[in-house]
Amino acid sequence: MFGYIVQRILAAIPVMGFVALFVFLLLRLTPGDPAAILAGDTATPEQLEAIRESLGLNDPIFTQFFRWVGQLLQGDFGTSILSGKPVIELIGDRMEPTISLALTTIILSVTIAVPLGVVAAWKQGTLIDRFVMLLSVLGFSVPVFVIGYLMISLFSMELKWFPVQGFRPIGEGLGDFLHRIALPTFTLTLLYIALIARITRTSMLEILGDDYVRTARAKGLPESRVLMRHALRNCSVPIITVIGIGFALIISGVVVTESVFNLPGLGRLTVDAVLSRDYPVIQAVILLASLIYVVINLLIDIAYVLLDPRIRYT
Amino acid sequence: MTDQTAAIRPPGRVSPLARTREIVLSSPLVTIAAVILVLVVLSALLAAWIAPHDPVRLTPSQRLKPPSETYWLGTDAFGRDLFSRIIYGGQISLVVGVAAAIVAVISGLMLGLLAGYIRWIDAVLMRMVDGLMAIPSILLAIAIVSLWGASLWTVLVAITIPEVPRVVRLVRSLVLAAREEPYVEAAIAAGTPPFLIMRRHLVPNTVAPLIIQGTYICASAILTEAILSFLGAGINPETPSWGNIMAEGRIYFQINPGIVLWPGLVVSVAILSINLLGDAVRDALDPRMAKRGIER
Asked: What is the pTM of this model?
């Protein structure tokens, strides 16, 4: 068990290495002077020279890469062009709305999507099943911001149940926090439900045909017990896997949703950075998002062993 | 002679046309999706003849008008006809969707073949694929566009790169499975050069899944283009694309929600149709895959 965990952690390191290499090469392969890109349009020749010096652009490219990775490992993500502040500080300021939105979305969509998928598989071919399947194709087809604007026009402008935009930290009262994060969460949840409900349904379908489910039914166990204890439990591995894979989807969705609802999170930070071509910020957000993705999937790999005693790695 | 070769065609092989008809008619929903898709493609191709107004001409006196006889869906903040803009916008979306699907499938096929067949390439390539897949696709596309500047080419590259790893993984797994087949082992034993083995025995195994994956990539590329344009990281705002129209309509949402919602409806319905057709093709070509619910 311990060996397995160590092995998974070691396997995650080269993945992050390639992410860093890719982000590094992206800047170097851009036509033009990397220093000019990092300094922005208004930089003076002296500033350019200073950046060139600090990046060591005259050194061999390998030296440059490893020095850059060394700086990253010490938490030095560079300086924002727009505000002149360290990027890591900007990111720290913008974390809360993004984490709040991601967490509320994951919680809400798992609570809705798993039962939906179970029922769809249980009642395969019925109206409920078709509805769930249609919902999940819709989730892959409708752009998040279209859902967001539909929510705004229905719940904010027509019914006036929720505010159109804005964010309130959870520290300033749970009620206000929930009231303001509700619409963004519903928006993003619709997208995520599609993914999870689909996988839950598929893996349930496979398991419901298995012998031990038939045995459980044959010995007269109540249907709810068959579904929950025998079937759903064995689906946990694929469901957890897709929650991890879907995390990349959530990050993409968060960027868009934050723009629609004007939440001051990492997504807004990134979009503002695009408009001002503030590459150090974009680069840091990518590295951070990928790191979180890799760590979450690492935790999920480890969770397999705990969830499914059949999986044994030594 | 030619008649004879046609006559000895193996039984059970249906012509592509008959196959297409069979798929399109497989369920009413799929038929509707196919009709919608044909309409969208035709209106984009024939935009110059269909669109009632010039999509880029500014008419300041007609700003933000509600739908009327002259302007079927109303006008935007610059007095441009929304309906005409949506018709023209389809051109960009379709170009992006089709081009991204073709490029991603071809490059993914080549890399996947190499990875599946040659051990040491596999080890390196798969780590790269893992790394690339760890980067959320929208963020990656945003980074590329912000570095290289917004143009149709950059957007195309930015949308295609995140799609390639998924194709590589798919092809690799298909190749690994096909390699175990007796006919491939026989070919290896007979000393057939690797290139011929790939072309003759491995590539044909990937065709059906790649067609299906291609339709999903097309749908997802159109979606990503809309999102990028919406975020202001897409193609030049002057060119009407579905995402651009919505991006410009954002600030006027409370005055005229139609500027966001109409293109939103069109893009959603178009992507939904492609996805439904993809599902139908999948069910027809590879029933096993339908059961497994292949990932998109």
From this structure: 0.84
